[in-house]
Amino acid sequence: MQIWYMEPYACGDRRLPHHVFPPKKISPDQLLQKSRVQYYKVDLDDTVAMKKRLSRVKAEWKVVSSDILTVNDNVPDWEEKLEEYYEPIVRDDDFVCMVVDGSCYYDVEPEEDEWIRCHLEKGDLVIIPKGLSHRFTITPKNYVQIQRFFTDRNGNIQMSK
Ligand SMILES: CSCCC(=O)/C(O)=C/O
């Protein structure tokens, strides 16, 4: 995963990196300190290691359901969907997301109008904590397949998936 500060009030093609000038990249540890976003690299080609990592994440974060979402330009109402995903949201549950194929950006906003761009590729898994403003968009590949894991902060019935 590559992580960098975005230029303020980025406009134009959202798929471009929109670095601040000069570019300011940060490490996953710095991202964690700054925003509480956690990061794991999952080796999707190693089934045993992948299952181990995912079952740990599911147990630790009380994952109750998951889905797999493909975002590409064959999606009906593609432009509208992208608009919707780019709208900042603040969730009241922790959100876990892993890139299965392709690439995408999750932008997080630890402080008002200060956006940090996380460029996720295959095997990158992030945990966006509840309460943190974030948004999603695609990269110039125009293609990503992600697995989303939904958590239950109230400890309700667990569904296996
Ligand atoms: C294409 S994923 C859109 C972002 C998302 O599903 C979500 O709920 C983020 O919190």
Automatic annotation (TrEMBL):
GO terms for molecular function: acireductone dioxygenase [iron(II)-requiring] activity. InterPro entries: ARD, RmlC-like_jellyroll, RmlC_Cupin_sf. Pfam families: ARD. One of its GO terms (biological process) is methionine metabolic process. This is ARD. It comes from Diploscapter pachys.
